[in-house]
Amino acid sequence: MSNQRALPPGEQRLPPEDLKAEQAVIGNALIDKAAALLCVRELTADDFYREAHRSIFAAVATVAAAGEPVNLVTVAALLKQRGQLEECGGGEYLMALIHEVALIGNAADAMASAIIVRDRSSVRRMIAFGTELQQKALANPEDAGALLAEAVTGALKLAEGNTRAQTASVADGWEEDALNLHAAINQPYGVTAARSGIPALDNATGGYGGMYLVVMMSQEKSGKTSFSVQSALSSAIQFAAQDEATRQRVLVIPLEEGRQSWIRLACCWLARVNSQLSLPGRCPEEQKDEISERIAEGHGQLCELPVVIADRIRSVDEAVAAIQVEQQRGDIGLIVVDYLQRLSEGAKERESLTQIARALQSVSEDVRAPLLLSSQISWDERGNPLTYGSRGATQDASIVMSLIRDMDEKKRKKDTGIIRCQAARSIREFGELPYFVDYAHGSRFFDVERGSERGEQDDPNQSW
Fold this sequence. Notes:
single chain; DNAb Helicase, Chain A; Rossmann fold; nine-stranded mixed beta sheet
């Protein structure tokens, strides 16, 4: 049963605040240098409910930032310069604040009061966020997906304390910085666990680890979905070998195929089965038992891998929200989004694609996991890629590659091609790498040497 009293008609509940705590913070800051520095680091002027306290604390922060002593004289002088001293109660009010804490004021008291002020401010921000969300829902009830995405993203920002920018000395958090630097240096030389599964490509890039936005461009029906499936599963197999306490996961957002189709392709890849045979009515009668058994084995393997699928994503806001929520549940080692143009917005497609790519790149950096983004392209008469609106993706990505299929004399796509490095920021450009894709055995990509061992003459209906 709630302990809150019922409000009389016409009476409004005041937002949560604690004026005594606000006064204690300012009083302590005016008489104790350590208290002033602690409070300035913990709070901003907007955390105070009373307008006069906001102005006074803003002056305290300005004086402290200038390296001057924070006291009655310096703060009052700055408030007078700003024309705010009288409206804040004058020097008499500042003296009264000091008098209240003069006998017991110290840094510990200031910190306790600062926590109260900060918490009340957080609750007020939650109330404001809820009110804003309610107003948007009432004004536009048809867009439930966008509202849900905004609710999730906003709630996570409130929970993480990211509603305002933060500054800190480079010495703050040095332990974590040192651990991250030494962990990177001491990691065994070789390919990271997040990878494409194509030996030559992984050797050239070192894997996806340490990157953020990774873009793979290709023309329509040239293998970008198959490539993204292989990258997800190759990485998941590596993650599965990690210690359970530190095990990472792959988050897949299958915009083109959807969950069911992605599961089908993944099972066929693991079982080394031609995915065409898993389509309704495409498997010959004499092979049904064998193919069914093989795919069941692939499904069993898939269930053991650390893979999470975000289904029914319709906008970049929903995609970002899904990534943020999943990161709260555990460490993500690779995010796979297939593909960029599925998130576009009609007539403003080119502009929206740039914004979408940058939003994905930003969330990749926030969760510290590489994001593999496939994108559709076409080519101009000189053979240069036209990125179909993904200019932001190609500019901001750690690496941009294109998947180019070879064509026969009748303009039919062959099972060979090249992977070209279009741009790279953190690694050297590797130029062009030939590849072979074995569609007969699960749409597996190999470098040419590995592919030639299998041969292109295999019966497409057989599995191995």
